[in-house]
Structure formats: structure tokens, C-alpha cells
Design a protein that fits this description.
1 helix, 2 strands, single chain, alpha+beta, 43 residues
């Protein structure tokens, strides 16, 4: 879920999942694949 930033409102996007605000479809960002691989190697 994205956070509200005082300077930019909801323009900045954070997190591992991208949400299309028109359709509410969710898509994994590249960073989610990286963190999944990292966690698999560590644990």
C-alpha cells in the first residue's frame, strides 16, 4: 500500500506491489522478485 507523502501526496509509490488505481489490479514490482530470492537464500 502506498503512503501519503506531505510534499508529493500519493505521487511517490513505495512497496513491492504496484496498484493500478483505475482498475485496482496489482502487479509485482521487480524489487519483489529480488527480495523473494534474497529471503530464500538466507532462510
Amino acid at each position: 500500500m502506498d503512503c501519503f507523502e506531505w510534499g508529493d501526496g500519493y505521487l511517490d509509490r513505495f512497496g513491492l506491489i504496484y496498484v493500478d488505481r483505475k482498475t485496482l489490479m496489482r502487479y509485482r514490482k521487480e524489487s519483489s522478485y529480488w527480495i523473494a530470492g534474497f529471503l530464500k537464500r538466507q532462510y
